[in-house]
Write a sequence for this structure.
């Protein structure tokens, strides 16, 4: 499970409380908002984490192809 620093969790809890009040007209306390963060972190974070890994992998693969092309361009012809 992804571990959040205390300050990060508190900031997220405040954002959730504000969202719930502004958008849903529901007031929740610090404990409930942190409980919701724990749930989201456990259930949803792996999807976002894996998407980040996939995106990073795509960038690396694209760069490797570019490097391969550049290396091919600087190869010298060998004549025997």
């Amino acid at each position: 499970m992804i571990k959040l620093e205390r300050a990060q969790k508190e900031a997220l809890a405040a954002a959730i409380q504000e969202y719930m009040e502004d958008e849903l007209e529901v007031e929740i306390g610090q404990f409930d908002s942190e409980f919701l963060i724990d749930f989201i972190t456990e259930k949803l974070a792996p999807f976002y984490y894996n998407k980040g890994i996939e995106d990073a992998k795509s960038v690396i693969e694209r760069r490797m192809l570019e490097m391969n092309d550049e290396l091919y361009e600087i190869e010298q012809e060998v004549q025997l």
Summary: The helical segments are 6-24, 30-43, 45-74. The mean pLDDT is 95. Residues 45-74 form the longest helix (30 residues).
